[in-house]
Each structure stands twice: as C-alpha cells, then as structure tokens.
Amino acid sequence: MEPFTQVQGVAAALMLPNLDTDQIMPKQFLRGIDRQGLSQGALYELRFDSSGIPRPAFVLNQSPWNQASFLVVGPNFGCGSSREHAVWGLRELGIRAILGTSFGGIFSDNCLRNG
C-alpha cells in the first residue's frame, strides 16, 4: 500500500472501546493473503444483522459516513489477535486513516506497515 502525507474526506465516529481485530475482521472472512473483497467482512457483525441485512443505525451504513476516509475510534481499537486482514479490510472499505487515543500494539504496527 502506498503511504500518504495528506488525505481529505469524511470522518465517521466509531467510539466503541476495545473493538478487537476479531470484530474488525471476523474469522469467516479470512481467506489466505488475498486482499480483494475484504471490505465485505470489515466490521461485518456491526454493519449487518444475522440475515446479512444492513443495520440502518450503524454509522457506516448511513450517508455521508458510508463514504468515510477516516475513522475516529474509541480506546484500545484493534486490540486482540494479530490479524493483518483487519487492516486490509478497513482499507478496502475506504478507510485511509484512523484517529484514536490508543490502539492494539500489533494492529498499530500492521497499519503502519500497510500504509
């Protein structure tokens, strides 16, 4: 992924504390090292109900936040297991930068390595 020095866009607030990598990219969407199509799985259980129908109240399912380039997140975002797919899925969803007070260490490293 290409690093950047400047980005403009819409910011969406996702202020849930301790949102872990299993929630960011659920295990059923881990398909090897292919990054294509991972946007489908990103934040899946927050974005969709058990039937796969979008949850209208979820911020990334609402305009203009469904076009967000930024996520403003709660503390300890990306905690949990080492799941590089979590970073890839958010990027495929269109998220280019994440702003928060604290991040899971491995998630933070994965973000930096992936632009």
Provide structural commentary.
Helix content is 23%, strand content 10%. It contains four helices and three strands; from the N terminus they run βααβαβα. Strands 1-2-3 form a three-stranded parallel sheet, with no helix packed on it. It has helices at residues 21-24, 44-47, 84-93, 105-113; strands at 11-14, 70-73, 97-99. The longest helix is centred in the last third of the chain and has 10 residues, at 84-93. The chain has one domain (11-113): Alpha-Beta Barrel (Aconitase, domain 4). It is α/β, with parallel strands linked by helices and 115 residues long.
Question: Which terms summarize this structure?
Answer:
Aconitase, domain 4, 115 residues, 3-stranded parallel sheet, 4 helices, globular
CATH topology: Aconitase, domain 4
How is the largest sheet built, in terms of strand order? Answer: 1-2-3
Instruction: Identify the CATH architecture.
Output: Alpha-Beta Barrel
The CATH superfamily label reads: Aconitase, domain 4
Our count of domains comes out at: 1
What portion of the residues fall into strands of 2 or more residues? Answer: 5-15%
C-alpha Rg (nearest Å) = 13 Å
Overall pLDDT confidence = 93
Helix content: 10-25%
For the biggest sheet, the summary is: 3 strands, parallel
| Topology order in helix (H) and strand (E) letters | EHHEHEH
Terminal Cα separation, in Å?
5 Å
| The first-level CATH class name | Alpha Beta
